[in-house]
Design brief:
- The complex is a heterodimer of chains A (560) and B (82).
- Chain A has 560 residues and is α+β, with helices and mostly antiparallel strands.
- Chain A folds into four domains: 167 residues, no CATH class; 104 residues, Galactose-binding domain-like (Jelly Rolls, Sandwich); 145 residues, no CATH class; 102 residues.
- Helix content of chain A is 59%, strand content 13%.
- The longest helix of chain A is centred in the C-terminal third of the chain and has 32 residues.
- Chain B is built from three helices and no strands.
- Chain B is globular.
- Classes of the chains: A alpha+beta (560), B mainly alpha (82).
- Chains A and B meet through helix 16 and helix 18 of A and helix 2 of B.
Chain lengths: 560, 82
């Protein structure tokens, strides 16, 4: 038997690097996505029927706010179109030491949203007004395109024209591929001229230099500089766009939102660069390279193909059966998104009536709102259900998107790899990650886990690093950091257990439901970090979940 | 050519002895992507390859895809042995 010994020096470097990252995350300066103008106006003794007001300024998509108001008497609060009655006996308030502590949750739909507090007819006093953002999404170019009806129609028309063109020209590979590239680039140019031109220039440069990457001396350093520029390009446009565009006299005339698909361009580019470094696919021509990077079917959010399989799986001709398969896949995706995800699963989390029927209450809060209002006081059942419904929603939502992307790519004549393989049936968290967002986990395995494992001679440290990179690729914050630690620790425990114990087939069959259930619950715990942008709420709920899970067996033993 | 056949046999033996795989495992059949060996086994495979065939596996130059069949493993050993 051979003994595997960890390379201590390289491992320490990796661990040290991770700790620095944590340090950076904690002290990373962050600007709030919402600001309150004239907030001082909101605390005051109010005459009967007097109104005071302030304005929320918001730069993101639908931020959700938790407002905490301490008051005496009875007031009406309106935030945009939402109205709340706060006073004794209202579901939003609790009496504490003569004051009423009221908590409401409001969404901001507009860039400027007024908040107005109007006193009841007996006068009142607002002694404290506190607020924080619990959830928001970044504004993206896509949300801008889809929020305007006319651009959506033009986009639809463009996609149909693209399909017709593809269908007619598919057999003439070169013509067809240039056509598809042009359509993607036109779309990108329309959204963001400067970014697209820079991207094209950058991609051409990378392509032109590709043979240098595994030639001559110091190839490792050359590879690092390739990767450095690619990651730098991503970070520059993801986070520093305003700064770049401010060199122009009037930066406001440009689209300052995050460029469409930039994270995915870089993922595909990095994979290709590593393949070049290993000496593969160097004979690819610029057309094939560019098409792979900007392919419209997977442009926005994957699935992440690799350049070899992408071209290998190009259909030699688009037949009727491809159209049947592609279209049915798109319809399945739309059905999953509209009917299952948005109209059913999302309602379980966000509808007040579901919460009132399931847990009692007066229709003031939904399931998720009840957790936001009082994370430390919430029962275990709402937390567990929230995790489960939320995870299922995320799964159906994202896999629906992947269905549409795979179906559409098929119509364009390309068979793209699957992204999900029923992750809810995984028997442990390691298997779960082989089934969930497979194209990304495979990418991360090949390009992060594997090289680090070679370098550190350790199977476990690279798991942490890989999950951290995936997590922080989503967003650079503590929630995703914790998410990564949660999942990687789970995977490491599973692989240690797998080495120590092996299940007989019969036992595995008997334990199957238990293992599947435990895996889903474990994954859903991680989802708590994904959902809330407020770290305090997420970590409180997470700790409560563990507290319950760990004390349950002890309690059960106590009863016996 | 003889050298390649010898290497193929050596790798097949290594897989059978160290990982309990079938003897004379087919040279073109997938190992990792078919789930016969696990990503946790690959580190052991790399260390054995380095020890038995006197090569070194540098960071970034290998990928799991390059070890997926006996044939590919032997190609890698030959390339690194040069």
């Amino acid at each position: 038997m051979i003994k595997v010994t960890t390379d201590k020096k390289n491992s320490s470097i990796v661990v040290l690097f991770t700790l620095c990252l944590l340090f950076l995350l904690v002290f990373f300066p962050r600007t709030s996505p919402v600001e309150l103008e004239n907030g001082n106006n909101l605390t005051k003794v109010l005459n009967p029927n007097e109104t005071i007001g302030a304005t929320f300024l918001n730069s993101h998509v639908l931020p959700k706010l938790l407002l905490k108001i301490t008051l005496k008497g009875f007031v009406y609060v309106s935030v945009g179109k939402d109205e709340f009655k706060l006073g004794k006996g209202s579901g939003f308030c609790k009496e504490e030491g003569g004051d009423l502590q009221c908590k409401i949750i409001a969404k901001l739909y507009e860039y400027k949203t007024p908040i107005l507090i109007t006193s009841g007819s007996n006068g009142s006093e607002v002694s404290k007004f506190d607020w924080n953002v619990v959830k928001y999404k970044h504004n993206t170019t896509l949300s801008k395109v889809l929020s305007s009806n006319s651009t959506s129609y033009i986009l639809m028309l463009g996609l149909i024209l693209l399909l017709v063109f593809s269908f007619l020209s598919h057999k003439r590979t070169s013509l067809s591929q240039w056509g598809v590239i042009c359509s993607a680039i036109l779309f990108l140019l329309y959204n963001d001229l400067i970014f697209t031109l820079t991207l094209l220039f950058f991609l051409y440069g990378m392509y032109f230099l590709r043979s240098k990457i595994n030639n001559g001396k110091h190839t490792l350093w050359k590879l690092f500089s390739f990767l450095f520029f690619s990651v730098g390009f991503l970070l520059l446009f993801k986070y520093g766009k305003e700064a770049i565009y401010s060199i122009f006299a009037n930066p406001g005339q440009f689209n300052l939102l995050m460029p469409l698909g930039v994270s995915y361009f870089m993922i595909r580019l990095i994979d290709t660069q590593l393949r070049w470094y290993r000496g593969h696919n160097l004979d690819v021509n610029f057309r094939e390279f560019l098409l792979f990077i900007v392919f419209p079917g997977t442009l926005i959010a994957g699935p992440i193909e690799n350049i070899k399989d992408f071209h290998k799986n190009r259909l030699s001709m688009i037949t009727q059966s491809d159209y049947a398969k592609g279209l049915s896949r798109i319809f399945i995706g739309i059905f999953k998104k509209v009917v299952i995800a948005d109209s059913f699963l999302y309602q379980l989390i966000a509808s007040e009536s579901f919460y009132a029927n399931a847990f009692g209450g007066d229709y003031s809060y939904s399931l998720v709102d009840s957790l936001i209002i009082d994370p430390s006081g919430s029962g275990i059942l709402p937390i567990v259900l929230f995790g489960l419904f939320g995870l299922l929603f995320a799964y159906v939502d994202f896999s629906a998107y992947s269905d549409i992307a795979i179906g559409f790519s098929r119509l364009l004549g390309y068979r793209i790899r699957e992204n999900f393989n029923f992750p809810m049936l995984a028997v442990n968290i390691r298997e779960y990650w082989k089934r969930w967002h497979m194209s990304l986990s495979n990418w991360a395995f090949q390009n992060i886990y594997f090289p680090l494992m070679v370098k550190t001679r350790n199977s476990y440290i690279p798991i942490y690093v890989t999950m951290l990179v995936i997590g922080l690729w989503h967003a650079f914050n503590l929630s995703w950091f914790s998410w990564a630690i949660h999942h990687s620790t789970g995977m490491i425990i599973v692989s240690i257990l797998q080495r120590k114990f092996s299940l007989s087939d019969r036992l595995a069959l008997i334990l199957w439901p238990l293992r599947v259930g435990a895996t889903i619950l474990f994954a859903s715990m991680g989802f708590i970090f994904v959902y809330f942008n407020n770290y305090e709420i997420a970590s409180t709920l997470y700790v409560k979940y563990w507290d319950f899970a760990l004390s349950l067996p002890l309690k059960m033993l106590g009863f016996i | 050519m003889n050298e390649k056949i010898k290497l193929l046999n050596d790798v097949q033996d290594l897989l059978a002895n160290e990982f309990g795989m079938k003897e004379n495992f087919s040279c073109e059949a997938a190992i990792f992507s078919a789930g016969i060996l696990d990503s946790m086994d690959v580190l052991k495979l790399i260390i054995l390859m380095e020890k038995n065939f006197n090569i070194s596996v540098p960071i970034f130059e290998a990928s799991l895809e390059m070890f997926d069949t006996v044939d590919l493993i032997v190609d890698f050993i030959i390339k690194k042995g040069e």
